[in-house]
Amino acid sequence: MSMDYTTAPSPCFVLDEKRLIANLELLNRVQEESGAKVILALKGFALFHAFPLIRKVLPGCTASSLYEARLACEAFGGEVHACAPIYLKDEMEEFLGCVSHVTFNSLSQWEQFKGQTPGRGISAAIRINPEHAEVQTELYNPGRPGSRLGVSPDELGDRLPEGIEGLHFHTLCECGADALERTLAKLERSCGPLLKQAKWLNMGGGHLITREGYDVSLLIRLIQDIRERYDVEVILEPGAAVAWRTGVLVATVIDRIERRGVRTLMLDVSFSAHMPDCLEMPYKPEIRGARDPQGNEIGWRLGGMTCLAGDDVGDYVFEVDPAIGQRIVFEDMMHYTMVKTTMFNGVPHPAIGIQRADGSFDLVRTFAYEDYRNRLG
Ligand SMILES: Cc1ncc(COP(=O)(O)O)c(C=O)c1O
Predict the structure, then answer these.
(1) pTM for the model
(2) What pLDDT score does 1 carry?
(3) Is residue 38 classed as helix, strand or coil in its secondary structure?
(4) Which of 177, 323, 331, 359 could bond 218 through an S-S bridge, CB–CB 3.0 to 4.6 Å?
């Protein structure tokens, strides 16, 4: 049963443990039936209070920066994979002290750091770009022409550099298994000889395995097939799929205004600061008890609390017109939210809570003025 969100503070991100467990069960099936490892991409979801639950099923994490690698080491355990666009000289010793696998985004970075990996049980890889685009939104498309993410196949030729054991590609974003199938076909055409030499192949993230309708059987078949034909270990590193539809952002209507026929609910959250993907993608979030207006129907626009003119998303028709003080519940606000939020305009950061599987509610973090101030000097 859904929790009574009036019992949570507002604003508050609330993770629903039961839903996370359901996602993990599906990801476990993928691991068991395909033989692939599934690891959590921290860039998408890093609520470390949930790590003990996730760790029961997923054997590790992938980090895209030193801080993520440290968090993986300290709070998750297991394998820590690193895949960052750049590694910094001053950080690299500490970084390598945290990881089991490290993927380089360029041959020059590999050349720079290859002397630091031997003898410490770290397996190194190169990120390749199969030069195949499946993602329509350019901001999220690593396969765009001239992309800075991943070495192009012709740079590598048909031999892996000495010391490199793995291959990594990441080209998908919220995609189905059919997109992976097309990507693998292109990868095999352009990098077949390299695949034969690799010990492991990391297929990146962007596999929205837990979305309703995702073809899990096709994914399992594709992985089994690649593992058998190339004798490689396969790794998937989704972020969004782990936390997909596992929680909400609870907000409150603070004011209602009407200007030239546009009715706006002013909220104690911001799209820019707390739900940035709504503006970046852009997309219109789902709201509990509300729907899109039809025809000439007049709805309520939702307005964020910063001064950014465009800190709003489209219009909604509610089952009951929301009154001042009423809660607004934004669905699916666990992935790419808490990891991306800002305190732009000095707005307070939403608290973070967990609805436990037994129905109880734990408030795990609240934020204060000091959190804002301490970032600035
Ligand atoms: C290299 C890499 N791996 C994994 C991911 C996780 O992707 P997603 O959260 O879409 O599954 C990303 C996302 O940008 C990425 O860049």
Answers:
(1) 0.97
(2) 60
(3) strand
(4) 177
Q: Is beta strand 164-168 parallel, antiparallel or unpaired with respect to 123-127?
A: parallel
CATH number of 5-13+247-333+341-373: 2.40.37.10
- Residue range 136-183, pLDDT digits in tens: 999 999 988 889 999 999 999 999 999 999 999 999 999 999 999 999
Q: Which two tokens stand for residue 207?
A: 């596999």
Q: How far apart are CA 23 and CA 210, in angstroms?
A: 6
Strand locations in 123-281, DSSP E? 123-127, 164-168, 200-202, 233-236, 247-259, 262-267
Share the mean pLDDT of the chain: 97
- Structural domain boundaries in the chain: 5-13+247-333+341-373, 35-243
Ligand 1, residue 204: give the atom nearest the CA.
Answer: 3
Q: What residues pair up with 175 in beta bridges, in sequence order?
A: 207
Among 284, 272, 339, residue whose Cα is nearest residue 313: 284
List, in sequence order, every beta strand (DSSP E) within the chain: 12-16, 37-38, 40-41, 60-63, 79-83, 101-104, 123-127, 164-168, 200-202, 233-236, 247-259, 262-267, 290-291, 300-303, 312-318, 327-330, 351-355, 361-365
CATH 3.40.50.10490, applies to 35-243 = no
- What are the pocket residues of ligand 1 if the criterion is a CB atom closer than 6 Å to any ligand atom? 41, 43-44, 62, 83, 170, 173, 204-206, 237-241
- Max CA pair span of the chain: 69
Q: With left for phi above 0 and alpha for psi between -120 and 50, is residue 346 left, alpha or beta?
A: left
Q: Rounded CA gap, 156 and 242, in Å?
A: 33
The pair phi, psi for residue 272, each rounded to 5°, is -65, -45
Q: Whose CA is nearest to atom 12 of ligand 1?
A: 205
Q: How far apart are CA 152 and CA 195, in angstroms?
A: 14
- Which of 149, 139, 132, 351 has its CA nearest to residue 250? 351
